[in-house]
Amino acid sequence: MKTLKRTLNINYKYRYKNIIKIGRTHTMDAVPLALGQEFSGYVSQLEHNIQKLEHSLDHLSELPIGGTVVGTGLNAPKTFDVIVCKKIAEFTGLPFKPAKNKFEGISTRDAIVSA
After folding, report:
1. Strand partners for 8
2. Of 38, 65, 67, 110, which has the fewest beta carbons less than 10 angstroms from its beta carbon?
3. pLDDT digit string (tens) for 18-46?
């Protein structure tokens, strides 16, 4: 996505900035615009989606391990979550960490849906 964004960014700023085309809205012709202007919209979409993906990776790396059945952590050793996340991170090479809120981590799938 970053490579596509860079390529479109170069094209809209330099290659397509002076190419005029007819704009379209509601399947009808509209006012003229530069092809570069249209491409700037694609670049903006990619920027927003890259940010969303990068942010979702932070949430995906939070594990509710040690929250036990409902998120209270009842009967789990105090540092169990930290130890297990560290081991999983070492094994996978990914930055796993304990969930900030075990109740949320256990009860939802928001991180996966967002990604």
Report:
1. none
2. 110
3. 999 999 999 999 999 999 999 999 999 99
